[in-house]
Amino acid sequence: MTKLILFNKPYGVLCQFTDDRPTSGASPRPTLSDHIDLPGIYPAGRLDLDSEGLLLLTDDGALQARIADPRFKMRKAYLVQVEGEVGGTALTALRRGVRLKDGPTRPAEVERIPAPALWPRDPPVRFRKTVSDCWLQLTIAEGRNRQVRRMTAAVGHPTLRLVRWSIGDWTVDGVKPGEWREAPPSVRAGS
Q1: Minimal CA–CA distance to 138: which of 116, 157, 112?
Q2: Cβ-contact 118, 168 below 8 angstroms
Q3: Peptide bond before residue 22 is cis, with ω within 30 degrees of 0
Q4: Would you list the DSSP string of 117-181?
Q5: Is 102 a catalytic residue?
Q6: Pick from 40, 37, 30, 39: which is nearest to 9 by CA?
Q7: Mean pLDDT per 10-residue section of the chain, whose length is 191 residues
């Protein structure tokens, strides 16, 4: 029976089970093995060290590829705290797709949202009295390296906090940071 795990990855946790950084006196970074003790499961995709939220893990290689491979266009929704007040010009650019160093992105679905009721981040996002911020909900069907961060920076609004909320029909809602639960492994590609 296929296993699918929904894990709420905390900030600062590597998306792998071991820290392959050379141990030249530095203490090992937190990894998936600090939170998940299930043999034979592997991440279906990645989430940067400084990003939080939904990470899917499975023991099924075909399911893993279907979730992670961009050609299947699995939609991923993010809650993104950005620097500054995002206006119509920046939103339009994101909706059309922005040019990055590795080429143009596909159009994103994006809207400004009120600050979501999320768990506190450890460490907290640095607060600056003189610089405003706002929140976006941004959905993409690609998965380039640090793509959401690069997209918001390209329109003049660097990302301060990034939380992946959902992948396809799976969501992190109800899963506390550092915890996981098993979910049905059904997949619908553009969901």
Answers
A1: 112
A2: no
A3: no
A4: --PPPSSPPPP-TTS-EEEEEEEES---TTHHHHHHHHTT--EEEEEEEEETTEE-TT--TT-EE
A5: no
A6: 30
A7: 94 91 74 94 93 96 87 91 96 97 96 97 87 96 91 97 96 97 69 43
What pLDDT is attached to residue 191? 43
d(CA 63, CA 167): 13
How far is residue 137 from each of residues 32, 114, 148, 154, 156, measured CA to CA in Å?
26, 10, 11, 17, 17
SS3 label, residue 157: coil
Residue 125, number of CB atoms within 10 A of its CB: 13
Residue 1 has a pLDDT of: 82
| Contact indicator for 110, 137 with CB cutoff of 8 Å | yes
pLDDT at position 187 is 58
Distance CA 107, CA 57 (A): 27
What pLDDT is attached to residue 33?
95
Going along the chain from its start, the domains and CATH numbers come out as 1-72+172-191 (3.30.70.580), 75-167 (3.30.70.1560)
Task: Considering the candidates 34, 48, 59, 69, report the single residue annotated as catalytic.
Answer: 48
In order of 53, 63, 95, the CA distances from 10 in angstroms are 7, 24, 28
What DSSP string describes 1-19?
---EEEEEEPTT--SSSS-
Do 64 and 44 meet the contact criterion of CB atoms below 8 Å apart?
Answer: yes
